[in-house]
Design brief:
22 strands, four-stranded mixed sheet
Length: 500
Amino acid sequence: MKGPLVKDGYCTMKESITFESKKCQNKLPKSFWETYSSFANTQGGTVVLGFEDKGERLRLLGVECPEAVVKELWDLLHNRNKVSANLLTEDNVRIEDYEGLKYIVVDVPRADRHQRPVYINDDVDSGTYRRNSEGDYHCSVPEILEMGRDSTDGSTDQRIAEGTGMKDVNKDTLDSYRNHLRSSNPTHPWLKESDEEFLRLIGAADLDEERFILTMAGLLMFGNDYRITRSIPDYHLDYRRYENGDEWNDRINSDSGMWSGNLFDFYLEVSNRLMMANDHPFVLKGDRRMDDTEMMKAQREAVLNGIVHADYLGRGGVNVILRRDSLTVRNPGNFRIPPSKAIRGGYSDARNPTLMKMFTLVGFVERSGSGIHRIYHACDSMGLPIPELEEEYEPSCVSLSIGFRGSEGVESRVLQLIMADGKMGIESMADVTGVSKSTVYRGLKRLKDDGKIVRIGGTKGHWEIINDKKKDLNAEESSVFVIKKQLSRKGFSIFLPSLL
């Protein structure tokens, strides 16, 4: 936390997804534990005790007996009937003083995946919370199950897929995979094995009482969509490309019935289409690209990360959205390690290690734990904006957005949306444009700071474009008409940001 926490008797921070204040005199407020659980299960955060809401500001009241409150805190943290895990050390709790008024600061770290879900009152169903922009909320059963799956060291993709066999393998996909391995490593000994033994060796199949049966990784990688969805009902893959406006002009989705719908074919086809959309020429040696640009590598890395780190038992599916100025990949499930570690690189905690092994075997994964780091490094080396990596909840997902031309494209689309409907909120703008809410927020702030838009009427008001800026947008009237048409449709499709 930068700078002083209190100035002129008021808190310098506002309540947010990582900051919460509570009134406290001589006893720890009961609502503290809901926030403790929510911060632990989300991104971590800070709770300050001894403040009250005063309009849009937090006024310091102070805590009468801070030492007694801190003792109560530690006593309850060690009571498993109160809270499932103690995440705090002495450094996380401190008593501060401002002009004779004392207050308590509690820094709650993000819980390790092995400790989640963190719940209170000895009741995982009703005592598990998470945090969003509106405060603490009860986790749904699917969210609790997601955290439970991630808390174990076993992986879903290594489990057997009941009732499957060689009949459920798409032969064309398997042949393609074996050809890729032959191209990258012609002398690999597994190439001499039968299809059944080859699948067993790479982790795609197992022998259950002498019966050949696919693992979940094998079904996802080599199966057909209609069979995959029998075992994983919410399984879905979707790629869309937008040239202009919000009408896609190219799409691949796993349930179309036009292709296998499995992960390996999806990755190859999306990689192909990203290549064709790229202005840079390339040379093939066999089926290998010999003059890849750093941007093409970063794009493929983003797609691959989304595929191998997805929670396929979660909700939402893997989505890839390509626009003129950005690529966004979105996958179900949250990070198993803090995002900051993923960005630094060198840390690997794959949700689907068998899928990771399969892609590594054919040379698509260079080094475990370096994907996000390489994407950030590539963007930095090309002078592009820092990629946006964002965790979302309800449902849980991760999105990674790579910008190709800076922020101007986002601002232009936001201006068009304001012309179409000035009352549109940030969440709706993010849905329509296919970028994250934080991207839209920053775009709005830049437009406002540049004097291009103004907010009328506060939170329940609307945006207006400054008159002389409206003239600059006349040439884009056709785009605005498309957006208006899209928004006016009953039950129009929402194009969510894709993820990693």
